[in-house]
Amino acid sequence: xRKPLLCLKGLTKAYPGxxxxxxxxxxxxxxxxxxxxxxxGAGKSTLVKMIYGLVKPDQGEMILRGQPYAPSQPSExxxxxxxxxxxxxxxxxxxxxxxxxxxxxxxxxxxxxxAQRIRDVSEEYGLPLDPTRLVGxxxxxxxxxxxxxxxxxxxxKLLIMDEPTSVxxxxxxxxxxxxxxxxxxxxxxILYISHKLDEIRALCDEATILRGGRKIAxxxxxxxxxxxxxxxxxxxxxxxxxxxxxxxGDVVLQVDKLSLASNNPFGTSLKNISFSLRSGEVLGIAxxxxxxxxxxxxxxSGELTAPAEQVRLKGNAxxxxxxxxxxxxGLVAAPEERLGHAAxxxxxxxxxxxxxxxxxxxxTKYGFINWRATDAFAQEVIARFDVRTPGSHVLARxxxxxxxxxxxxxxxIELNPDVIVVNQPTxxxxxxxxxFIRQALLDLAGKGAAVLVISQDLDELLEVADSFAALNEGxxxxxxxxxxxxxxxxxxxxxxxxxxxxxxxxxx
Amino acid sequence: xxxxxxRKEPSKFWRIANPFLAVALTMLAGGIMFAMLGxxxxxxxxxxxxxxxxxxxxxxxSRPQLLIKSAPLILIAVGLAxxxxxxxxxxxxxGQYIIGALxxxxxxxxFFPQPGWYIFPLMVLAGAFGGFLWAMIPAILKTRFNxxxxxxxLLLVYVAEKILAAMALGLMRNPDIPGxxxxxxxxxxxxxxxxxxFAGSGVHWGVVAAxxxxxxxxxxxxxxxxxxxxxxxxxxxxxxxxxGVSPTRLVIICLGISGMLAGLAGMFEVSGPGGQVRIEFxxxxxxxxxxxxxxxxxxxxxxxxxxxxxxxxYIGGELSQMMLQLPSASIQVFQGMLLxxxxxxxxxxxxxxxxxxxxxx
Lengths: 508, 361
Description:
The structure holds two protein chains of two kinds.
Chain A: E1 4-15, E2 18-29, E3 33-37, H1 44-51, E4 59-64, E5 67-68, H2 74-79, E6 82-85, H3 97-103, H4 111-124, H5 140-152, E7 158-162, H6 170-185, E8 189-194, H7 197-203, E9 206-211, E10 214-219, H8 226-234, E11 251-260, E12 270-278, E13 282-286, H9 293-301, E14 311-313, E15 316-317, H10 323-329, E16 331-334, H11 349-357, E17 364-365, E18 368-369, H12 371-384, H13 401-413, E19 419-423, H14 431-446, E20 450-454, H15 458-464, E21 467-472, E22 475-476, E23 480-481, H16 487-493
Parallel strand pairs in A: 3-8, 3-9, 6-7, 7-8, 13-20, 13-21, 16-19, 19-20
Antiparallel strand pairs in A: 1-2, 1-4, 4-5, 9-10, 11-12, 11-14, 14-15, 17-18, 21-22, 21-23
Helix pairs in contact in A: 3-4, 3-5, 11-12, 12-13, 13-14
Chain B: E1 2-6, H1 12-36, H2 41-49, H3 51-54, H4 59-85, H5 93-111, H6 119-145, H7 149-169, H8 205-223, H9 225-235, H10 237-242, H11 247-270, H12 285-295, H13 300-324, H14 329-350, E2 351-355
Antiparallel strand pairs in B: 1-2
Helix pairs in contact in B: 1-2, 1-14, 2-13, 4-8, 4-9, 4-11, 4-12, 4-13, 5-6, 5-7, 5-11, 5-12, 6-7, 6-11, 8-9, 8-11, 8-13, 12-13, 12-14, 13-14
């Protein structure tokens, strides 16, 4: 056993109506890579927020290097050598790397010295980063490096990383792991939050598993199989989704050499996209976040329009049609962002049913809404898709992420579409709900619908997709059969070598 | 220590209770203000809120006045509320009101002195069209060049006021009485006169129009796709696009409806209670209607009550000027306080004040 760096003893934190952490105790050794494993809502975030001084525990204590440790704010945690890289970056797009790093420091040195230190640190840890580049121009992987370098400049003893690989390609993950191993060898402990089991088994010395706010186990992840870890995490036996055997039908959706500017100044424009989709087919589109996924969904849902001929649905040119016209013709979509895009947060589930179902379910007459039929439809979705809610009158924002996702995907599936496009269908959803959603999509494909799944979760894509393509800086690779693709090949399709070699950047 | 905590859901209780509380606080603060002016606060408050309806001396005059003052407020506020729900902020109803009046009066003066049943309906159409046209300026600038409709619509009020003055002194001036600014008195031109429908009741066509507008707005917001889209766009713009709402179309519709209703209000005023195009024709209804819309919780039914209350303060204000020699600005202060207290109180619809033990570890 290594010398303990941080001891957590009986940490408890309650929010109104929920016990986020219940008597959690474990130790992190110096230089140890310690995984914190659990589903969404298991209490991982609350726990690390307590360590980082963002949340005060109701009960329990922490001991850092033998001293009582109770940070009242993050700056105090940082002074004690605790640093954190968040899942969502806090960077300013319009400033360059060095300026962004300076903003996060207590006493930043002059910018020129800082730039040199950034170069030194990034070289030392194999994290290529140019301090003079604008953050708005960086890929997600590079942005993460900015955050990591910002932490490393403070010479931390404990580095907390919240789901760091969710935005990275497999090759970028390798680079990150190398850095983390080097840090660990130099004596920096790492608390690594994730629900990706293979990663944890590859990287971590020890894993603490949380479920429902309580510690379930602390174990050596290398001695457990991924399946064992998953079952500890979920607390039940998991069955992989069933892929019904089915013949593929005719081409129903065709996109032809489509280029489209993003409607967002920091978005990614689509460049020369071509693919076709047959009925019964599940096409998986991989890619690191911010490579045009949002734009692809908007272009297919009709929220962005294109020249009519470049998007064809069952032979009809639909590129210039809006969302409702496309829905009437049989093309539906479920965007990534559940609250605010796929559903209006402050509206009830019934009102939200109307959002996309008005056309296909004929819920209006001369524009007047048939609320009774709308409510019946909402109830049908709730029942069929096992949405846990007291009723259809509940506001969308009151549902948990997984339940709302089931509702949103269920609403689109119940419209009986010919083509369904979904972006990140199981993002932030617990394992049981994720399996349910994937199965529902496969069942829909089994009935002859064409399914397009855009996702950053490779395991998910490999589980459901018949064919496979990747988005990289707004370009789509040729579609390949999913069977037999290796993770390495997928990584290369995703642009795995993305900015790995700063020496070549000038010529790019 | 006092802490603010965001509520999980906005409190329904405070949403309803706040307007009443705001009125009570306004009376209190207004009373203090009157006391500082050296007037008896109880008498002043009674003059403003009770005497216009209940006093035997003034009631017969001011009761019909209540509908006359409230109808334009309600008519304008109903339109504004639709836009406000969609986060489209038309602050320039006063300008649309003026232009509507000028269009309506313009039609009347063109036909003068001809008789004809069709003249008044034409004036109604012209008034609505004038207000619509004036509101289209911020609408088109917003959809075309992404300008801010708050600023553009507000500044256009002052342009409209200048046009009003120019008309009263120039083109529309009454040629029969040289040397006096102002147009012919439309109340003396039967075909154009928006007369009382029942003598002594204060009910003129504007009151009928306000009632119809309230019913239509209510049905639209509760039962029609357009109302649903308005609320969607206000609450979650991206979800609205997903639902097929075109933001451009919505801006045009919302500004169009509120401009049209404001224009109608102006037309009914100039052809009835106002009587003629004068420099001082605009009396701030367009701005007061903003208070009415918020006090009525952007709900058409709520707006009826809020409109009646604010109408009351207009009459009570005049009364208190007469009886107590209160400065005329005091009633505007009064109306301003009402909005101020309402917005401040609305904070507790979304937040909860929590007293915590003041220990920090």
